[in-house]
Amino acid sequence: MARPANATQYQRHSLQLISRVLNVRSNASPFTLILDDLNQRAMPLVGELVRRGLSRNSTVVVVSFEATRFHPAVRSIAAYGDETGEQIVQQIRAAMSEAKENLVIVDSLYELISVKNVDMGALFNLVAGEFASSLVGVYHQDTIPDQGAHKAYAPQPLDLFKYMATTVITCKSFAHVLAAKAARERSLPDPTHGLLQSVEGIVQCLDANDHHGVVIEAEFRRKSGRPESETYFLRAARRSDYNAPLADTTFGTLRQEFIMLLDQVPAYRSSEATGPGNATANEMESTFNLGLTDKQKQAREEVVLPYFDAQKGEGAGEGGRILYEMGEEDDFDEEEDEI
């Protein structure tokens, strides 16, 4: 696709990219990797993927290590029990065998390959290759990978997932993004949150998992190898965003796309960004007053500047001369003056 010519076309193009991924369009993204942490969980985004998958009459299969409650139409596979990795793969195959379009979601990729020892390549070939469906996996960035001796020369799980993914989405708290924007506008270093603060006892920061919505940083990888990146804001879904379900459907279709570019969010575009150390764009916080009273302004105008009298001379060469009167502490050297 040619590069968008103006801002309007670029916005339309960027929204179309993320909309194809969220609506689980065919061949939009065979493997979508979602990265989250304690400060912003991926569950709001995963829930939206499930709703949109059901609205298109797709079979939604969730391999669950953490979640326990699902929509009745979701085919859940409880992977936190005694099932082996081979049994989990067989259950995924059985759940997809009766449908044309499938959406497979794994809520913890690390446990799938590290605990259940499921081969990621085999799972990808099963979902994206054999059934031509979409695979979505969540990886918690605050998970400490296993450093066993038998895996010393193997790639880290996160590096493997990023290499295989066709779309990488990073979830961030909206409140933390606003705080970082406020710091940049004041030329301050970006604030750190949670474990990044390196403070003992802090694992989750204030304003984590903002209820207003989630900020997602998406990287779309094309077949040509050229990636495209953009940042979006996904607010919480409302009942009015979807139509009423028909007789033969389990969930209503989407009325209008409500995800938007982060730069289009009014709270982000406003000059008064919320966050620690909040200050308006036209004011600077200081420990002293930069304003002057009328009396102070008059005293400043009466101050005689250095060498001011030299500028009053008339004639050539008078304007640059320096007037200096010797004091008692000055030591006049007649021999140096003659030289």
Automatic annotation (TrEMBL):
The keyword Nucleus applies. GO terms for molecular function: tRNA binding. Pathway: tRNA modification; 5-methoxycarbonylmethyl-2-thiouridine-tRNA biosynthesis. Its main location: cytoplasm. GO terms for cellular component: cytosol; elongator holoenzyme complex; nucleus. GO terms for biological process: tRNA wobble uridine modification. InterPro entries: Elp5, P-loop_NTPase. Keywords: Cytoplasm, Nucleus, tRNA processing. Gene3D superfamilies: P-loop containing nucleotide triphosphate hydrolases. Belongs to the ELP5 family. This is Elongator complex protein 5. It comes from Epicoccum nigrum. The lineage of its organism: Eukaryota, Fungi, Dikarya, Ascomycota, Pezizomycotina.
